[in-house]
Amino acid sequence: MEMIKPGFCLFFLLSILSCANRREMIDYDINTKVDSILSIMTLDEKIGQLQQLHYEEENKKELYDKTIKGRTGSIFNLTDPVEVNKVQKFACEKSRLSIPLLFARDVVHGFKTIFPTNIGLAATFNPELVKKGSRIAAIEATSHGLNWTFAPMIDISRDPRWGRIAESFGEDPYLASVMGLATVEGFQGDNISSKTSLAATAKHFAGYGAVEGGRDYNTVNISRDVLQNIYLSPFRYMAENNCRSFMVAFNDLDGIPCTGSEFLVKKTLREQWGFDGVVVSDWSSITEMMTHGYAIDESDAAMKAINAGVDVEMESTAYADNLNTLVEAGKIDEDQINDAVRRILRLKFELGLFDDPYVDTNKVITNPPQKHFDIAYDAALESIVMLKNDGVLPIKSEQKIAVIGPMADDRYEQLGTWTFDGDTNLTITPLMELRKRNLSNKISYVKAMKHTRDLSESGFREAKKVADKSDVIVFFLGEEAILTGEAHSRATLELPGVQEKLIKYLAKTGKPVVLVVMTSRSIILTNILDDVDAILYAWHPGTMGGRAIADVLTGSTSPSGRLPVTFLRTTGQVPTYYNHKNTGRPTTEPFIPMEQIEWRAPQTSTGCTSKYEDVDFHPLFPFGFGLSYTTFEYGDFRVLSESFTETREIMCSVTIKNNGKVKSKEVVQLYIRDIAASLVQPVKELKKFEKVSLDPGQRKTINFTLTSEDLSFYDLDGNKVFEPGEFELMIGPNSQEYASKTIFVSN
Ligand code: GLC
Question: Residue 562 pLDDT > 60, yes or no?
């Protein structure tokens, strides 16, 4: 084992003495240590740090061998703490340089305790709660030996056909930024070297949510304006706020795979945004550049990825098999590899792995404590969006309830996608909870369908029997986990199977019908909206979903979720989102159904504006929408500073009052519109929101502060631009209902 040369010790000590402050001292300290290790690494050992390997029982011997030889720097998908320590021991005690390994996993919306899928977490509009959830996930995951998670996914998702909308925080850049940072802060904790900290990963960089046709992994083309101001927005925010790693996306962006994009990684992420963390490929996305038709062979792929600035290769081995030769041939410079190795070693120092690389196997969390379930319950509760209520909710205690449907009692499916480590034995389903509460046996249950995709109507009759002898029908439906998430896109967005038919069949009983929809995309509800009396959108609510849903159904709590995505009338409206451009011909006339257009109507008689002839182009439910068991009255919207210089802040306020009889939470939303700018701006953009709780009759004044940052946008080259001029400020309960004021902002 080669010792570190004495000269470095002296240099090290001298350099420490010259440090100005603690943070500089830490950086200097880590950078010095990193450079001293780097100086004694062989090229093969450096390349080894760039290799991330997937752990499988059948490949573990090979993985042990590579670890001892220093040919891997990180392992993913190993969650057995004893095995983690065994592999870590090979790295720290058997390899030449004793460099510890990183252990990574997709800890996306929980580990053992599962929280709502991210789109449901977004619907809480409660970043503090989301942060608590990811903190709990980190505590559980690190107890199993993990120290790196491939989350949060912050891809802007405007297309519900795309299955991965489930993992996203929806269509809005501001909401995705706020929720993404809350997730990062929860994962990384207050001190990233703590034993309960996970390095977070902003993914998938970039534009993945804009896959053509909503078909996963498909090609992506985005205008420079929309790229800078919509799709890059949350990633820029993560880079500015110390998220410690990024993952490049599978897709090509404007003809160049993200994994080989020097524009995205080298120029934008590293040079323009100053990101100094680790960039990891997606699963074999380096070698997939050959499939894309961007690399001619693995050597070419390796060169393009390292030139772009991708540090870690997940799963494929293009780096391990080719970088050495590429350096020797002078096709790449060893310094490029040195830079990547520095970032990886730095992350390991930041995580404290050089000081304490092992997991304490006496503290493995296999049975999460109650407080984990309490936060998961809060998150599930606050994610539920009430879309409709004709008065049938809340259900009265004396009412007999017919619980029907394939999602009423499925401990696995209600957890949603990306729940590899979720413990289904912990799941509380709606049926379990309703039965527990309703001891006088007022609950009758029929699943009626094998699963949500079932095409058989054989369960309908039994469902009707149960419905006939009940006072209210609660139908639990939606999509199983397999219908959303990675590689699970759909070309149609209606409810799968015979669910719509069953709803209409049950509606014919004349009993009130309550839908509880469990899925993680915005399903098309148009065809059944008039057949039901109430709709609760519960997403995939996670471990505590049943208790949360029961509390809303019975009125213990008023629903407070708000839509993080626009709900469409028909799939043909995709993409439709709230922060759209105005166009030169916005539609203001009411929708006239195609059937009502006069025979031989003159060509221009239906109006030359941006609309459809066959469907009302407005959404079925708008971004930010959600009902509660009370009503809120908004008033006294004030802007406290009519003119504005770049140094001052715009202060505005509004009062809201709870006009009902129950305590409820409201999400007060502030949107802006830049009326005229050098780049056309959206008709509205969410810039602030605040979730407030109000007792019956209580009134509160909500204050918002806007800075020039909030009124800025990015030009085509990604430079922030603030242009004085007219701005419309809008405050209200959602993106369609608001009071507005126009102000003139001077320089
Ligand atoms: C997957 C996903 C990515 C995930 C990675 C590791 O293909 O695209 O989100 O983190 O592989 O599981």
Answer: yes
Looking at the CA of residue 203, tell me the nearest atom of ligand 1: 9
Query: For residue 640, what pLDDT is reported?
Result: 84
Q: Tell which atom from ligand 1 comes closest to the C-alpha of 104.
A: 6
Could you tell me whether strands 632-639 and 713-714 are parallel, antiparallel, or unpaired per DSSP bridges? unpaired
Q: What's the 283 CA to ligand 1 centre distance in angstroms?
A: 6
| Ligand 1 center to 203 CA (angstroms) | 9
Beta-sheet strands, E only, within 226-362: 245-248, 252-253, 256-257, 278-280, 313-314
* 3-class state of residue 468 by DSSP: helix
User: Can you read off the two tokens belonging to residue 562?
Assistant: 């708000």
Ligand 1 atom nearest 150 alpha carbon? 10
Tokens 């009134």 belong to 699
Atom 12, ligand 1: which residue's CA is nearest?
Answer: 106
- pTM summary value: 0.95
DSSP 579-591: S----SS---SPP
Q: Which residues line ligand 1 (CB under 6 A)?
A: 106, 150, 203, 282-283, 486
**H-run or E-run covering 430:** helix 430-437
Ligand 1, atom 1: closest residue by C-alpha:
283
pLDDT exceeds cutoff 90 at 600: yes
- Cis peptide bond prior to 160, omega within 30° of 0: no
Active-site residue set:
282
Residues 233 and 712 sit within 8 Å (Cβ to Cβ): no
CB 686 within 8 A of CB 174: yes
| pLDDT-derived band at 27, boundaries 50, 70, 90 | low
Confidence of residue 645 (pLDDT cuts 50, 70, 90): low
Residues in a beta bridge with 729: 672, 741
- Rounded distance from Cα 89 to ligand 1 centre (Å): 27
Which residues, including other chains, have CB under 8 Å from residue 270's CB and lie 6 or more apart? 276, 309
First to last CA, the chain: 64
| Confidence band, pLDDT 50/70/90 cuts, at residue 92 | very high
State the angle between helix axes of 6-17 and 22-38 in degrees (0 to 180), rounded to the nearest 10: 160
**What is the pLDDT at residue 3?**
45
Kindly tell me if the per-residue pLDDT of 493 is higher than 90: yes
C-alpha distances (whole Å) from 710 to each of 151, 321, 557, 643, 654 are: 26, 47, 34, 15, 19
- What is the amino acid identity at position 130? V
- CA 101, chain centre distance (Å): 27
Count of helix runs (H) and strand runs (E) in the chain: 19, 25
Sign of CA dihedral 67, 73, 78, 84: positive
Q: Is residue 221 within 8 Å of residue 168, measured between CB atoms?
A: no
Predicted confidence at residue 24, as pLDDT, reads: 59
Distance (angstroms) between ligand 1 centre and the Cα of 110 equals 16
Whether 565 has a pLDDT exceeding 60, the answer reads yes
d(Cα 726, Cα 712) in Å, to the nearest integer? 13
Element housing 46 (H / E): helix 43-49
- The closest residue, in CA terms, to atom 10 on ligand 1 is 150
> DSSP E strands: which ranges in 376-499?
385-389, 401-404, 443-446, 472-478
Look at residue 122 and tell me whether its pLDDT is greater than 80: yes
